[in-house]
Amino acid sequence: MGLRVSPESLAREWSLSFADIDFVNAKPAGSRLGLAVQLKFFAAFGYFATTADEVPGESVSYLADQLGVGKADLCQYDFSGRSGRRHCAEILRHLGFRRMKRADRAALASWIATELCPGGASVAAMMEAVFLWCRDRRIFGAPRKETERLVRSERQRFLETFLGGLADRLRPETVALMETSLAAPDSPIGFHIIKGDAGAATLDNMLALADRLAFIKKLDLPRELLSAAGKTWIDQIVRRVGAEKASEMRRHAPRRQLGLYAVFLMMREAQIIDGMIDLLV
Q1: Which of 2, 20, 163, 212 is most exposed by smallest CB count within 10 Å?
Q2: pTM
Q3: Is 259 helix (H, G, I), strand (E, B) or coil?
Q4: Inter-residue long-range contacts of 174-181, CB under 8 Å, 24+ positions, other chains counted
Q5: Does residue 179 contact residue 185 with C-beta atoms inside 8 Å?
Q6: Is the C-alpha dihedral spanning 238, 241, 244, 245 positive or negative?
Q7: What is the helix, strand, coil percentage profile of the chain, to 5?
Q8: What backbone phi and psi angles, to 5 degrees, belong to 121?
Q9: What is the mean pLDDT of residues 73-87?
Q10: Does the structure show a pLDDT above 90 at 125?
Q11: Would you say residue 1 has pLDDT above 50?
């Protein structure tokens, strides 16, 4: 089974209260373990399991011991059938949860944008945080696919806003120089050359690195705006730009293109300085 839980979490999150036991024991014996699993799984993670494979094995054993039943009972439980869906609705009522309203969705989207997106966490990690946000407010959130769409949408909106904000702060002369670098990628200050390695420790290579460094400094890029996005975002952007050709960069929308290139150049400056130091050592 996929997830794992510590002994501390097992006792804290998977112990049945007297009210839980009464709730579970009101059902036919064969469905009690499955109902208990869904009850505590939802309480722990904020969403319902769709198969037995999602449930930590230790948790199943712990719940079976509390109910005095065998673990094998879970194999007969229909997670996605009519009775399973009815159990989910009953669990929500038992726990005092309500359905998500339009205002809740707006508040959630705002929280994702301001609290989760800047850090650059993965979609999976953000979804886990969203389910817990809903759980802590006793709100039954949207299905997983809809939640994933919301998370991806907010991530994309954050990235486009961040890159657009960078592009909007660039001076006209800076934009012209960056566009020239992309249009003539193999020129001394071209996109491909700036991405290139330092090379051997020769005078020509040192002078070439100095030219690249002077070009980036001349752009006077708005470094203070980098703090709006976490290191994870910056690293992702640098890797993406580093893997693209100039022709691919030019296919981006203008504001996105300039934002991506600006982030890359700001981080590339430190790399060039490190490369010059390495050549001198």
Answers
A1: 2
A2: 0.82
A3: helix
A4: 174/219, 174/220, 174/221, 175/258, 177/215, 177/218, 177/219, 178/219, 178/258, 178/261, 178/262, 178/265, 181/215, 181/261
A5: no
A6: negative
A7: 75, 0, 25
A8: -65, 160
A9: 92
A10: yes
A11: no
